[in-house]
Amino acid sequence: MKNVTDSFVSLVYWPFAGSFGFNTDILATNPINLSVVLGVLIFFGKGVLSDLLDNRKLRILNTIRNSEELQGGAIERLEKARARLRKVEMEADQFRVNGYSEIEREKWNLINSTSKTLEQLENYKNETIHFEQQRAINQVRQRVFQQALQGALGTLNSCLNKELHLRTISANIVMFGALKEITD
């Protein structure tokens, strides 16, 4: 390291060789060099820098404009979506109310229908019972009539002799003849 610093230090002792050389006086050379470099940069870089800044400014403004347009569109779509949501919620509530009323109506229709069906079944049952009672009564009557008839025939056969039997038949024939004349 000492060699590197020695070489720079030795530059201070170089003699001037004409118009070109190193001036090691910091106060005299740096502000001049800096002012020359800054002057050149400002002179030549002013247009490029202003163009870059103008382009950047335009891009930022375009981005802001696009963002505002997108925001406006998003707000509009959001409002439309909210309106659609409110409409759908109202329709859902209406369907729910209609559905409940329809269910109630169907329930009452089913109850009424079932009640009518039960009433009809009760009527059919009563009619069937009445019919079966009548049939049983008729069967009992027929049996009683047959038994009475058999008893009467038995009594008649045992009590009747031939002469009484012939008189009864003659009386019945006369009676039937009289009935026939009345009906003609």
Overall pLDDT score: 82
Strand content: under 5%
Extended strand count: 0
Largest sheet: none
Keywords:
single chain, 184 residues, mainly alpha, 90% helix, 0% strand
How would you describe this protein?
The protein is rod-shaped. It contains 3 helices and no strands. The chain has helices at residues 2-11, 26-159, 162-183. The mean pLDDT is 82. The protein is mainly alpha-helical and 184 residues long. The longest helix is centred in the middle third of the chain and has 134 residues, at 26-159. It comes from Choerospondias axillaris. Belongs to the ATPase B chain family. It holds the Pfam family ATP-synt_B. It is a single-pass membrane protein.
What is the fold's blueprint, element by element?
Elements: H1 2-11, H2 26-159, H3 162-183
Short description:
This protein is an all-alpha fold and 184 residues long.
